[in-house]
Amino acid sequence: MEAAEGTVNGSVDYKGNPVHRSTSGGWRSASFIIAVEVAERFAYYGISSNLITYLTGPLGQSTAGAAANVNTWSGTATLLPLLGAFVADSFLGRYRTIIAASLIYILGLGLLTLAAKLTSVNLHDCRSTKDARLCAPPRFQVILFFFSVYLVAVGQGGHKPCVQAFGGDQFDGQDPKESKAKSSFFNWWYFAISVGITVTLIVLVYIQDNLSWALGFGIPCIVLVAALLVFLLGSRTYRYSAKENGKNPFMRIGRVIVRAIRNRRNTLSAMPSEEDACLWDRCSEQFKFLNKALLAPDGSLEDQNVCSVNDVEDTKALLKLVPIWITSLAYAIAFAQTSTFFTKQGATLDRKIASGFKVPAASLQTFIGLAIMIFIPVYDRIVVPISRALTRKPSGITMLQRIGTGMVFSAISMVTAALVEMKRLETAKDHGLVDLPKVTVPMSIWWLVPQYILCGIADVLTIVGLQEFCYDQVPKELRSLGIALYLSIFGIGSFLSTFLISTINKATSGDGQESWFANNLNRAHLDYFYWLLAGLSALGFSSYSYFARSYIYSRERAI
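Above: the chain's sequence. Below: its structure in token form.
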């Protein structure tokens, strides 16, 4: 169905009427959506960036145990968007899901603030105790804390996949001008949330480490309430996706798979008409077994059970993502280290940058945000135009080329981290600090900056590339799921990181030996772990390159 002049095909306004291009969508509407996402990232990183410090401090957990808990929580938080996307794409829609998820998010942050306040009161009563483990908070407070952070994860699960997809919906991919703006949207989206993350790492982490954990968790709660109000202010300007048919998109995909399995022994001769034979010819060559979903079982054809060519091609579009998804996991495992062992590594170094002021270890992640904020404009305004002139492609380089380049930078960052850790261990040994883990190693914290910057550049290339790729290459009705699939890469990556840490910790701590992740980092071997991650990154990139070279884009503009 063609859109009327001045209207946007496939979109409606808040009343369900055809939406006009001049009065809706575009950067104006996207700015409201970006604002709520900046606040959400501010809140999320206010927890995740310094969570390992809270667990090893007020909650008294071991380094390995805390890292495992951080990775498990982070993994859960990035897998729950799959559920949130299902709810949004099947039932509530993105707009309503964002509102519901924000309310859950705010409740979780409020309870987290309460849990931190109760724990601080408990610690105040036993400060004279030398062993922090003997000052562990009551079981109720621990349960309340973990219930709160996982409630935040549930809220994030509904919020994250819908906000970015809803932002992308504000640009019409069929309009040349808006299509170009949509491509830039993913770059500047990541730029904006990096600003929120950077503010978190500078302001909130300092408040948490030096003033109050309760205040450090309470501020994000207030910010998210304000952001939700801002998001609601833009309701009249948004473009809402109009369902092209009444079919549940997940049901359509599932029916294709079921019918293809049932018809696996049928042949083309079972097609009831020449018209349907033509439909068969229109199907792509990839995953040809799914074409049998078009076949009529036993030579009969019932209208209510027919799968259309679009249904089959949409199913293929999802399956084509699987190899890219799997081979991106190595990148996600490396990505998980920036908020865990990188932070613990920095806590042992000389963090003084001015008289009486010490940089919080978690604030080093600021350099990732700074690298992102510097490199995104460079990429969008310099790298893309130059590569566009060389390749004659609208995006300069393809999305998959961009993702792969970031993987290379990630592997280099792991090599750099390993070399710096070797230097740190050598310095600790030379100054007789091997058995003095609480004494600062006389080595500047600036040694860690290169590995953070390399991670930031890798994020600009791989994470933004994955966001655009997963949004662009899925059926329109499943774009929340596309964003959720991108997020799930990092969820599974966090779980794999937890598995690696647990396995290595058990394997290397036997026979009286110190684990690679010993609480005394001067006797640990994080350098071995980083070398292992560098090797996994190289292996992952090789596998990714193999599948990326043979990938066929679902949309012409992506080529």
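DSSP finds 17 helices and seven strands in the chain.
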